Amino acid sequence: MRRWVAGVPMPRPRSHFDPARRGLLRGAAALGLGSILGPLWARYTEASRMTSESEHSASQHGDHAASESMAGHAPFRLDFRVRGGSLMATVVETDSTLVEIHEWMTWLRVRSDLGLAMMILGRHNGDLQGRPVGLFSTRLDAEETETLRDLMESIDWDHLPPPAGGDAMGSHLEIDYARGDTRIQRQFNARNREFIAAIESLMDPVNARLGQMLAAPSNALTAVAAARVDARDPALVHLEFELRNDGSAAVVIVDPRLPGANGKPRGRLMVTKLSQDSRPPAWTPIDLPTLTERQPEPVTLTAGAKLVIPVSWRSPQPGTYYLRADWLDYVGVTPAEGYASVMPLPADFDAGHAGDIGAYAVRGAAFSSAVPFQLAEGSVP
Q1: Which residue from 225, 238, 372, 229 is spatially nearest to 311, judged by alpha carbons?
Q2: Could you say which of 186, 216, 246 is where a domain stops?
Q3: CA dist., res. 176 & res. 182, Å (int)
Q4: How many C-beta atoms lie closer than 10 Å to residue 124's C-beta?
Q5: pLDDT tens-digit map of 208-239
Q6: Which domain holds residue 174?
Q7: Same domain, 143 and 188
Q8: Rounded to two decimals, what is the model's pTM?
Q9: Which percentage of the chain shows pLDDT scores above 90?
């Protein structure tokens, strides 16, 4: 029951921040992933977080496994992946497994025996601002897993319209489902509309689950920018580049002041001056200060912790400015004992899930909301 269709993911244009509209993106780019995930973002709250390791407990594992056993069903594992843009890195896990990291990547895995879903989101489509990236996790009850199993196996996969055509700019999607002797694997393009319409009964609940999981960051990183004009020297602005762990468990990153393997900065501030020009604003990069240490240890941020890097900047002229923090690191820390795998939820049914996965290495890109600051006339010589 296999049908493989080659997908050709291509680089995507960045959406631009329009400072004249107070931080709104200038339109959402129709880039394929958006046509699948749609506007699923829900502003997360403290109550929506996974706040207890008991949610991963062995007793809950047993409840789901017992429920499936009593119903005569073997457990299932479902992987749903969306990738687009360039291949940015290949991570070699501690067990020598190779994992490709793409410019835009979403990876959902569901284990029915554990009643658990985990999702990796490395970069938001359209480069949405102020949104966390990393690992998201949520519980599934027995009814949800049974419904998902029935939906997967009720589709006549051998007689679907072929996922032909598509769009080179569209994202590449993969479904991989395993239960007992049943194996369903499909690859298709986000613009294979006829094929996607034929599996709509499955895609709708999967999309809904992805949207709900955005409200449940487990190990996730958010970029934040801040600006304060010096009270005694009004031409001097104190800027801050901040990375904040908005999840419920630890994350680990390379210090953003260290350049990446390609020599480009992992983190930087971007500033632009408000103008009446209808063209996208021109952002000027402001480099973070150089580290004095030769090889610092990876930075671990516990839940709610943040890394703040101050930067001083002197404005060339008065006016209204906007500041943004960009973080891009697709390579991340070198996999090692004590760090979670790229996908911490094992595919093997013989492998349980102990709850505490250790520090999770976030890889991808995050962009802060743009914050305004004002330099009054006469403040700059």
Answers
A1: 238
A2: 216
A3: 11
A4: 24
A5: 888 889 988 999 999 999 999 998 998 899 99
A6: 2-216
A7: yes
A8: 0.80
A9: 56
